[in-house]
Design brief:
The protein is mainly α. The protein has helices spanning 4-16, 23-30, 32-51, 56-76, 80-90, 101-104. The chain has one domain: MazG-like (Helix Hairpins, Orthogonal Bundle), CATH 1.10.287.1080. The chain is built from 6 helices and no strands. It binds phosphoribosyl ATP (PRT).
Length: 106
């Protein structure tokens, strides 16, 4: 089984050592705007899938979105550890949402 961090490492390896015929390499060759377009498309597909009955489409589109977000992070030079550190900072430290003015104002 491949976890998110292993997938990130594989994508980073593709960036370091481009492989002919690789879809990941294709995205890096096209560049940031193409990757951003894919992230936008895949996000919309997750939203549509979530509104439809059944889990299969939602699972499939979510996996597509996760993959493309990881490609984006590699392209922008953001490490997986940076994301883990940000999540760890939040662990058990988020105040009650009812006490947060930015949420009250939504
Ligand atoms: N997880 C993924 C993954 N998820 C989605 N995709 C690709 O993302 C694309 C999304 O499909 P779309 O129909 O939206 O896009 P498309 O029409 O094929 O292409 P575009 O011209 O729109 O960019 C498909 O081509 C999928 O193959 C992925 N491609 C690769 N991986 C992983 O990355 C690894 C390395 O892949 P390669 O770089 O291709 O060797 C693989 O072993 C996988 O583990």
């Amino acid at each position: 089984m491949q976890n998110m961090e292993e997938l990130y490492q594989m994508i980073a390896e593709r960036k370091q050592n481009p492989k002919a015929g690789s879809y990941t390499d294709y995205l890096f060759t096209k560049g940031l705007d193409k990757i951003l377009k894919k992230v936008g498309e895949e996000s919309t597909e997750v939203v549509v899938a979530a509104k439809n009955p059944g889990d299969d489409e939602l699972v499939y589109e979510t996996a597509d979105l996760f993959y493309h977000v990881l490609v984006l992070l590699v392209e922008r030079g953001v490490s997986f550890d940076q994301i883990k550190a940000e999540l760890a900072k939040r662990e058990g430290k988020m105040s009650d949402y009812k006490d947060r003015p930015e949420i009250k104002n939504l």
